[in-house]
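Form P-L/3: holo structure prediction, ligand magnesium ion.
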Amino acid sequence: MYVKVMLVIITDLDGTLLDPRSYSYDEARPALELIREFDIPLVLCTSKTRTEVEYWRARLENRHPFIVENGGGLYIPRDYFPCEIHAPVDRDDYAVFEFGDPYPELVETLRAASSESGCEVIGFHQLSAAEISVRYDMTITEARLAKQREFDEPFEILGSACGPLLAAIERRGKRWLKGGRLYHIVGVNDKAHCVNLLTHFYRRLFNDVATVGIGDGPNDLGFLNAVDFPILVQSPATGRLKTVIKGARLTNAEGPEGWNQAVLSVVNGAEQAAGPRRLLCLARGREQIPEHHRAPLIAKGRK
Ligand SMILES: [Mg+2]
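OUTPUT (holo model):
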């Protein structure tokens, strides 16, 4: 008996699919070709903004839903799922689920926490696109896109003792996350909230969905614990992360080289796995949606 499996791959960008320094994904091209061949959904799940993700989706020729600003928002392209999705927000061509707190509120909280703790910080709101470009090795275009923020303020701690600052952020009901190079202040949102909601949509439509999560940093911890197959791409943080993510596999290589190895292994493994199990791609899956699941999907975000 065949058990058809639909794989959904959910991936962080910086330090995972993208090289942590050059932002290149050249070494991941073989795996990207393979998942395109199988039409496997590749969901970008990142601290980047909506406009930055749209830039990378265009470069990657990606048409799938995406998660921005550390779980602040889940964007699902209109007509992506073969039934209507009723989201709290309709924006442009997306159904949008907003989990994050408004950006101005986060900036004000960071300023107050820095003042109270005496710990000096520098946030993206204090920098021009040109300054961000130089400081964080981005092109000027990427820096402009990175400044268009909705739910998350990246910041750098200039002093050495950051404990009082982080505690002051928490006292104000916000969270802080450590990405590869920067800290982030966010609301109660996490990438995991968006991943859980999106997985729910896939599972409403297809009986057997297996989620693969790929990340490299502490801000990936939540969503890697929410997927079926968590994979850590080698980074300075992964030694500790591996101990707190159940069943996590660790790649030998960093960045896109590690990502490539992991995805080739998972996709080829799923094709050949015992059972026998077969990959079910989204295009084929559409034809097999049970009649009773063709009704609109209704879900609400946190707000
Ligand atoms: Mg990362």
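COMMENT: The chain has eleven helices and 16 strands.
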